[in-house]
Amino acid sequence: MYCSKCGHLDDKVIDSRLSKDGRSIRRRRECLGCGHRFTTYEEVERAVLRVGKRDGRSEPFDKEKLLSGMMKACEKRPVNAERLEAIADEIQSSLEMEFRREVPSNVIGAKVMQALHELDEVAYVRYASVYRHFQDIGEFIHEIQKLEKRPRKGEPQQELFK
């Protein structure tokens, strides 16, 4: 590892510890040339996941694009940005486990909609309107009526057998 101050190649690791999210290792290093201390992070190299689009094109998966779409849906809503980042990480991890190379875009959209439905129903409808290409107000009304029929998070379900 090159020293960030003098460019010397030799260093020693002073301290190693797991990062807060458990996905990387933080290492404190000391340059053997000048004594400068610096921090490096080591993480698992992820396989390049591609997204298969509706029109047949394919592009690399971009977590920032995913996060941007969710943030737009949650704009001016009481939703924590850190929570959205955690959801994006969870979606990316589940996609990497389920798919080897390419994931259909509709699978990503479905996972985002499921997460937003649990997080904030207004954000869910906003995202659904773009994702499903709503053309008129009737489609909004239909989606809201479907939402009203679903049990709310934390609401006890009726007993099936009495």
Brief overview:
The protein is an alpha+beta fold. Helix content is 42%, strand content 20%.
Rg result:
22 Å
Give the structural class.
alpha+beta
Distance between the termini: 67 Å
Strand order of the largest sheet: 1-2-3
Query: How many beta-strand elements?
Result: 6
Approximately how much beta-strand content do the residues carry? 15-25%
Stretches with pLDDT under 50, minimum 5 residues: none
Helical segment count: 5
Helical fraction equals 40-55%
What general outline do the C-alpha atoms trace? elongated
* Overall average pLDDT: 84
Give the SSE string: EEEEEHHEHHH
Number of domains: 2
Largest sheet composition: 3 strands, antiparallel
Commentary on this structure:
The model has no long low-confidence stretch (mean pLDDT 84). It is built from five helices and six strands. It has helices at 63-73, 81-98, 105-119, 121-131, 137-149; strands spanning 11-18, 24-31, 37-43, 50-52, 58-60, 102-104. It folds into two domains: 11-43; 50-149. The protein is elongated. 13% of the residues are buried. It is of the alpha+beta class. A three-stranded antiparallel beta sheet has the order 1-2-3, with no helix packed on it. A three-stranded mixed beta sheet has the order 5-4-6.
List the helices and strands and how they pair.
Elements: E1 11-18, E2 24-31, E3 37-43, E4 50-52, E5 58-60, H1 63-73, H2 81-98, E6 102-104, H3 105-119, H4 121-131, H5 137-149
Helix pairs in contact: 1-2, 1-4, 2-3, 3-4, 4-5
